[in-house]
Specification:
By secondary structure, the protein is of the alpha+beta class. It has 4 domains: about 260 residues, no CATH class; about 90 residues, Calcium-transporting ATPase, cytoplasmic transduction domain A (Distorted Sandwich); about 120 residues, Rossmann fold (3-Layer(aba) Sandwich); about 120 residues, Calcium-transporting ATPase, cytoplasmic domain N, CATH 3.40.1110.10. It has 25 helices and 22 strands. A 7-stranded mixed β-sheet has the order 10-22-21-20-11-18-19, sandwiched between helices. Strand 20, helix 21 and strand 21 form a beta-alpha-beta unit. The two termini are about 45 Å apart. The structure holds adenosine-5'-diphosphate (ADP) and magnesium ion. The site of adenosine-5'-diphosphate has 23 residues, from helix 14, helix 16, strand 14, strand 15 and strand 16.
Amino acid sequence: MLMPSRTESWSAADAHEAPDGHRHSHGCACCGPATGGAAGHGHQHESLLRFGTAITGGLLVLNSYLAEWFFSGRIDPFAIDLSAIAGAVILGAPILWSAVKDLVRGKVYMNELVALAILASFAIQDFRTAGTVAFLMLLTIAVEQRTAIGAEASIEALIRLTPRQARRLRPGGGDEDMVDVLDLRVGDICRLRPGENFPVDGVITSGATSVNQASITGESLPVDKAVDAEVYAGTQNLTGLVDIRVTRVGRDTTLGKVRDLIVAAEGSRLPMMRMIDRYVGFYTPTVLTIAALVWFFSRDLSRVIAVLVISCPCALVIATPSAMIAALSAAARLGILIKDISHIELAARIRSVVFDKTGTLTEGVLEVVKLHPAPGIELAELLAAATAAEAHSNHPAAAALRRLAEQAGVNWSDPAEYEEVPGKGVRARSGADTLRVGRASWLGECGLRTEGVEAPPEDGEQGGMSVVYVASNERVLGWIGMRDKIRPAARAALDELRQLGVRRLCLVTGDNAAAARLVADKLGVSDVRAGCLPQEKVEFVNELKRRGEVVAVVGDGVNDAPALAAGDVGVAMGAIGSDVAVQSASVALMNNDLRRLPFLIRLSRRTQTLMNQNLSLGLLVIVGGLYLSTIGVVTPVIAALLHCVGTILIVFNSARLVRSGEELEASPPPGG
Ligand code: ADP
Ligand code: MG
């Protein structure tokens, strides 16, 4: 590919590369000019040229038909033929050329079928048929290419979201320089005016604004952001003047990763597609054998031509990929990133959904509701110890403690050593003390006794709190109770899942039983596992899978990444800021709207239906057309028309998917 020019942003440059790979793998094999080695760059120019040629050739052939109809007998038949010959040559040459190239490379592909049909038409001096067949084949290529280009367009639209220039502040002074986005480095400070798109990922260092993050999350409701809030490349700064410190540039930005994921997904293959790849080598010889038999029994070259034309499997070849790509882009628009198209197949068959609790069914924003120190311990002492231990943790409990400590004016010092035991708690060294914060059972494992402290209440007003115990050295300082809010959309999402025939909804959490039951009861979930370690979550998922069910696991990626990876489909919520979740999940939700989950299942099922329709239509055209061609009912021109119309119908059928989910785009989550 060409070297990207300086003004071309990083992503625009690579974008030309990857989708081409996808065209090679999915593109219709018969349509040589479309797939035959067109390099990544310049394909747009090339397709324009091809378009011009096709139109010229088409007009010449049309002219020959018109002349025949209106002036036959009055002008020399050779003149009429001449127009058709010129048209057929112009139109047929690229097809013949690709066929020759394929033959030289030892590939027996469909190009040969079309090339043979055209040559045979020349042989029987039916130039108009040759021209028409070639024209319709080229038309089919153009239609097919639109789907490939459509996929590319969705990626290029993403790239256009990042401006090419940014306003960088000089260190020290307040002066601004306009610089190329490619020159921005992590740590630079940029200034953004209202209405501008963020060029990179960053953290706000001064100012406040509201941001439209729809390009990434699919949620059009603006999000308010102030100092220390993260902003993402490609999202739009709506109202305020803000300075940001650059944290990620180029491909490392969230948008860059989104783009990479989409490209990778479009390049992925379904098992069925791989099977077709394997048998494609037998296809052409089989068709040639049929054609030879038809010739042997009928001695009618016109039937042979029709057989060759109708057998060209364009429609079949694009039946599945076109639907898949449409589904991928519909999902991406709603902030649902599907990593591999095989996950679409699986999602249609989900029968069980395992939910993590904290941050998934609940908002994951904990609030401290009770501090319970052991006898002889001050409230502030308990809080300071807990906050110090959690100073470096990403766990929701840590954030709650920090917030409260700041509000209460309690000072804590950052720990010297720090270790997090996933699903259990944290251990830190502060001064001479070893601090531990986590679940009671873990402190027990560490040889600490929690019995000396009165246990948190299980029922009543105070029941159902999430509880962490705090210890300093050998001494348990007390426990801290926290509460979380159930996500507003959770109830509706779960109801919708039930309506879709998801039989088993489970709640699996590391939290205590009382807290788990509180949430489960409110949402009507009967299957609850509390106090699970990350490994136990995995085992639970595997157990469900052993029963032969397709299991989806939904989590936020905090302590549940292994479970996400274990599910047939792993859905990571709120993936916009976190890397871990995206790595282990098969589907990344860039937002926190649980209703995306039933949507995903519906979309997958629709995709499956459309794929089946497409395949049936493709098969019908080929098998039916083959039969009718063999008995001489379908002429070569009709065969080419059938082939073309079949392919177009399939492309349009798939395109219907692109619009699905528009209702979700319009409505914000209730109460959110
Ligand atoms: P969930 O399954 O609800 O997401 P986690 O697996 O994250 O829960 O944590 C399970 C339990 O382990 C928590 O309820 C808490 O008691 C304890 N825990 C895990 N990590 C931490 C931490 N960083 N700080 C305090 N407690 C923790
Ligand atoms: Mg969790």
